[in-house]
Specification:
Elements lengths: L1 H6 L2 H11 L10 H9 L2 H4 L22 H7 L11 H5 L8 E4 L5 E5 L6 H17 L2 E5 L4 H12 L5 E4 L7 H13 L6 E4 L2 E4 L1 H9 L3 H6 L11 E6 L3 H12 L4 E4 L15 H6 L1 H19 L15 H25 L3 E3 L2 E6 L2 E5 L5 E11 L3 E3 L7 H4 L1 E2 H4 L9 E4 L3 H12 L4 E5 L9 H13 L3 E4 L1 E10 L5 E8 L5 E6 L1 E4 L3 E3 L33 E3 L11 H17 L12 E3 L5 E5 L2 H8 L4 E8 L14 E8 L5 E8 L3 H13 L4 H5 L31
Parallel strand pairs: 3-4, 7-8, 7-12, 8-9, 12-23, 14-21, 15-16, 15-21, 16-17
Antiparallel strand pairs: 1-2, 3-5, 5-6, 10-11, 11-12, 13-22, 18-19, 19-20, 24-25, 25-28, 26-27, 27-28
The structure holds flavin-adenine dinucleotide (FAD) and NADP nicotinamide-adenine-dinucleotide phosphate.
Flavin-adenine dinucleotide (FAD) binds next to helix 12, helix 13, helix 14, strand 10 and helix 20.
Cofactor: FAD
EC number: 1.8.1.9
Family: Belongs to the class-I pyridine nucleotide-disulfide oxidoreductase family.
């Protein structure tokens, strides 16, 4: 809006403002536009809602000081002084006894009223102001409609600082004007916000922000010695512009810090690369969910005849079209991230970074140009990249999740290697869009997840056409024939035996886990320690590494769930701890997650087997039910394939420690329950919640079959 308004023609502007005047703020308008405004008589035509409209430079006029009392008489109470025109002066009742000073542009620059702020009433107000300033660590004299006041109030809120706010414009009658007069007498400052800390006058919006950027605000509030100033180029450099890094950098910049983000994507072995935003947006959650949605649309089309739709022919999926649309969408997100960094005043460096020492990095851009940059603090948020098995042909011939979403040719017959989130989700959506897919499973499905449900997912996928090679590991990949796609032979051996197997496919998609991007960071130069086993950065509960000025969050940090919202949450909280005096830590417990397999699986907390391990079998009660989602009823599919399970601790009033849902819209269902489970919901709390009918989620509110009873959990009817 701001930029638009600067360039827009006045005629258009007038009509826009009649509709959108509420969105217009002070510096949105250039002086030229304001002059034009005057010409079109818009200001006095009554077409504007004055009470929400501010002129572009009201705060630049030191003489800008129209008494509220005068404005009240004029009926333009919240109108900025510079907007008052001669027309308004004609309305001035002589009783006010005001003097009018008009600028060359015809706008009234000043009313000086003869209303006395001092005297008995004035003295009382002065005394009241003094006592408020003395009683409150931070006090802000403000006006509710003033954007600068709101900015300062938001800053203190972000800093977690309790403040006393006195809103002058909400006071009775002339009271606010009298307070403002008294404040001018006290501080010499005519404008709001007028900020005092520990009795000391700080000034207005810019003055307060300046104190904050000099790292002096919080020490001043806390009555501590000032934090020593540093001489580095930046306050905070974030290495990695993914989910966690972007969140942390924007939050730090919002807190007034000088921040840069280095983000650079090393192409995959087959040459795939992408833009700003990290794994989630480019080669993870977003394209994965879109392709999963493509598969769900396919499912809906095959259900369509049972809902009365006559489909002319059996539809087929156009891989190239799908990829193009997904990639175009991603490009729009990449652009959005760049704009967001710019808006947040974060410097974006499309450069690969490595440490030189604990306060210096060396970066290199895609042309090979190097430079060194220094910073007081660093955040390592470099995430991870797919791991390749150490077998012949893997890196040369196979692809990974980094390649599949932009694969420029139809993948043909696909073999996914691995049996966790990525392998099962990819096999699921590929199969769902009509691509022949198989999965090579080394041991179990979805290690770490509830194994009853993991097996139900495997069974459901198998019934819907995905082939599983269970108990096999690949030993070699050989190219049989060039092409796009090529013809490949995968040799495998039994995980626990010597039998061998050969599978012929066109695409091998490896999903056997991800390695953190730590080995090119030259961490040795900094003293940051990594786990010998995983290579991930070791941190304490505050995300601080073994080198105090360097922090790590997201996928690269040891022991953190590899999930986007986890990285974002950690990034936001870290910035507030570092630059706003917050002490809030990220709570890594009871994090909800969803596996987007054809039948989606959402869970919170413990698997049944982990709960039994922790509390003992005799202290665990499991409530469950199978059911058929209503949408699957007419097509007569997936009968009793959906499933709800609550794992409860008997000795803790049946507190729910494990929530498991297998069925449509699992992410949506699970997100809502996550709040309840995080708050410590018991089985009784869930029972006393009235369901929404007909939904799949309502099954949780009526669970009455325990596993221990041995009664069948399958369901018929509503
Ligand atoms: P990333 O997002 O990986 O960002 C790190 C960035 O740092 C990258 O851009 C990288 O190129 C850059 N970088 C690395 N080294 C350097 C360096 N030295 N200098 C400069 N830049 C560097 N999570 C969910 O919550 N839901 C899902 O549905 C989901 N689906 C997924 C599907 C797939 C296929 C994959 C692979 C992951 C999925 N995830 C999902 C996980 C999620 O994507 C990650 O947890 C999340 O992206 C991690 O964010 P991050 O900030 O830690 O790192
Ligand atoms: P993962 O969860 O680490 O699982 C690795 C899988 O590969 C396991 O099934 C493992 O089998 C198998 N494996 C490991 N080494 C192997 C080898 N040499 N040969 C054959 N199989 C092997 O990895 P991922 O699926 O790649 O996912 C990575 C992370 O991304 C996950 O932890 C998750 O947090 C995140 N992610 C989230 C979502 C989501 O939220 N929906 C989706 C995708 C990814 P074993 O069980 O035998 O070890």
């Amino acid at each position: 809006m701001t930029t638009l308004l600067r360039h827009i023609q006045v005629r258009t502007l007038s009509s826009i403002l009649r509709l959108e005047v509420n969105a217009v703020h002070s510096h949105s308008l250039s002086s030229a536009v304001v002059r034009q405004f005057r010409k079109t008589n818009l200001l006095s035509s009554g077409s504007l809602k004055f009470n929400k409209y501010y002129t572009w430079n009201r705060c630049q006029y030191s003489s800008c000081n129209v008494d509220s009392a005068v404005k009240t008489r004029l009926g333009v109470n919240n109108l900025c002084d510079r907007q008052l025109t001669k027309k308004h002066s004609n309305l001035l009742p002589s009783a006010v006894g005001s003097r009018l000073i008009t600028g060359k542009d015809g706008f009234i620059r000043q009313f000086s009223s003869n209303m006395a702020p001092t005297g008995t009433g004035g003295e009382a107000i002065k005394a009241k102001i003094d006592s408020l300033i003395n009683e409150n660590t931070v006090i802000v004299f403000s006006k509710t409609f003033c954007p600068f006041c709101n900015k300062i109030k938001a800053l203190f809120k972000d800093l977690g600082v309790e403040i006393k706010v006195v809103e002058l414009d909400t006071m009775e009658g002339d009271e606010g004007a009298a307070w403002q007069e008294a404040l001018i007498a006290k501080s010499g400052q005519r404008t709001v916000p007028n900020v005092f800390i520990r009795g000391q006058h700080i000034g207005g919006c810019d003055d307060t922000l300046k104190v904050h950027t000099q790292n002096k605000l919080l020490p001043m509030i806390k009555g501590e010695a000032e934090a020593p100033a540093h001489s580095y180029e930046y306050d905070f450099i974030v290495i990695g512009g993914g989910s966690g890094g972007l969140a942390a950098s924007k939050a730090a910049a919002k807190l007034g810090k000088k921040v840069a983000v280095c983000d650079f994507v090393q192409p995959t072995p087959v040459g795939t690369s992408w833009g700003l935003g990290g794994t989630c947006v480019n080669v993870g959650c977003i394209p994965k969910k879109l392709m999963h949605q493509a598969a769900l649309v396919g499912q809906s089309m095959s259900d369509a005849p049972s809902y009365g739709w006559n489909l002319p022919t059996l539809p087929s999926n156009d891989w190239a079209g799908l990829v193009e649309n997904v990639q175009n969408y991603i490009k729009s997100l990449n652009w959005g991230y760049r704009v967001a960094l710019k808006d947040a005043t974060v410097t974006y460096l499309n450069e690969y970074a490595r440490f030189v020492d604990k306060n210096t990095i060396e970066t290199v851009n895609k042309k090979g140009k190097k430079r060194t940059i220094t910073s007081d603090k660093f955040l390592i948020a470099v995430g991870g990249r797919p791991r390749y098995p150490n077998i012949p042909g893997a890196t040369e011939l196979a692809i990974t999740s980094d390649d599949i979403f932009s694969l420029p040719y139809h993948p043909g017959k696909v073999l996914c290697i691995g049996a966790s989130y990525i392998a099962l989700e990819c096999a699921g959506f590929l199969s769902g869009i009509g691509i022949e897919s198989s999965v090579m499973v080394r041991s179990i499905f979805l290690r770490g997840f509830d194994q009853q449900i993991a097996d139900m997912i495997g069974d459901h996928m198998e019934e819907h056409g995905v082939k599983f090679y269970r108990g096999w590991v690949p030993t070699e990949i050989i190219k049989l024939e060039e092409g796009t796609p090529p013809r490949l032979l995968v040799k495998a051996k039994e995980t626990n035996g010597d039998e061998t197997l050969e599978v012929e496919v066109n695409t091998v998609l490896i999903a056997i886990g991800r390695d953190p991007c730590t080995n090119t960071l030259n961490l040795e130069s900094t003293g940051v320690n990594t786990s010998a086993k995983s290579g991930k950065v070791l941190t304490n509960e505050s995300d601080q590494t073994t080198t105090p000025n360097i922090y790590a969050i997201g996928d690269v940090a040891e022991g953190r769930p590899e999930l986007t919202p986890v990285a974002i949450h950690a990034g936001n909280l870290l910035a507030k701890r570092l630059f706003a005096g917050s002490t809030t830590l990220t709570d890594y417990n009871k994090i909800p997650t969803t596996v987007f397999t054809p039948l989606e699986y959402g869970c919170i907390g413990m698997s049944e087997e982990d709960a039994i391990k922790k509390y003992g079998e005799e202290d665990i009660e499991v409530y469950h039910t199978n059911f058929q989602a209503l949408e699957a009823a007419l097509p007569k599919r997936d009968e009793n394939k959906a499933y709800c399970k609550l794992v409860c601790v008997k000795s803790e009033k049946e507190r729910v420690v494990g929530f498991h849902y297998l069925g449509p819209n699992a992410g949506e269902v699970t997100q809502g329950f996550a709040v309840a489970i995080k708050l410590g919901a018991t089985k009784n709390d869930i029972d006393s919640t009235i369901g929404i009918h007909p939904t799949t989620a309502e099954n949780f509110t009526t669970l009455n079959i325990t596993k221990s009873s041995g009664v069948s959990a399958t369901k018929t009817g509503c």
